[in-house]
Amino acid sequence: MHNAIRRIGLTGGIGSGKSTVAHMLAGCGATVVDADAIARQVTAPGGAAMKEIASQFGDHVITAEGAMDRDKMRQLAFNDRAVKQRLEAIIHPLVRRETLRQSGQAAKGGGACIVFDIPLLVESGGWRQQVDHVLVVDCSEATQIARVMARNGWTQEAVEKIMAGQASRAQRLAAADSCIYNDALSLEALDLLVHQLATRFGL
């Protein structure tokens, strides 16, 4: 069974550099299944979640093009945990189904290593059983805040609120089989680390 497909769960807090690591692993030949991209797909115009989102939350959270208005929805969910849970109950099963479909296709196509890029891997219980190895991209909270403020133009409060809704660093690290500490690393140094891991993943 040496050539069995490796299923890697990749996770990390907002601003940790997880997407950069996913991109580097793809460059090494891994098939990346991106849960965030799928979530955007199901909430795009004509997306699988849109009818249910409109009926539960009303047309004011739908853009003129027929997509979910992410900023409006974020504000609603920001102030009301129940809204966040109702939204997740619509989106998460659709994301999971599409994720499994994409990974099934990759396996059929002979991909040696499938990377599941899942921001909420630690939080959403069921994922741990689906993967062979959990890779966590970690950095200090201060670095996360600085990166997201610079990247998204959000306030510190907005970033901290998102972080409060994610697993803590300790919880993520407890779930990790391996970890990349991506705090003061240059892109070159990060790339080197990712390539070393890719070799271990059979890439």
Would you give an account of this structure?
- It is a single chain.
- The protein has 203 residues and is of the alpha/beta class.
- 52% of the residues lie in helices and 13% in strands.
- It is built from nine helices and five strands.
- Strands 2-3-1-4-5 form a five-stranded parallel sheet, with helices on both faces.
- The radius of gyration is 17 Å and the shape is globular.
- It starts with 5 loop residues before the first strand and ends with a helix.
Assembly status: single chain
Helical segment count: 9
Task: Give me the strand/helix succession.
Answer: EHEHHHHEEHHHEH
Helix share bin: 40-55%
- Strand order, biggest sheet? 2-3-1-4-5
Strand content: 5-15%
- Morphology: globular
Low-confidence stretches: none
What is the number of strand segments? Answer: 5
**Main structural class:** alpha/beta
> What's the mean pLDDT score?
92
Largest sheet: 5 strands, parallel
What Rg, in angstroms, do the CA atoms define?
17 Å
* C-alpha end-to-end distance: 16 Å
Q: What is the fold's blueprint, element by element?
A:
Blueprint: E1 6-12, H1 18-27, E2 31-34, H2 35-42, H3 50-57, H4 70-79, H5 81-108, E3 113-117, E4 133-138, H6 141-152, H7 156-164, H8 169-175, E5 178-181, H9 187-200
Parallel strand pairs: 1-3, 1-4, 2-3, 4-5
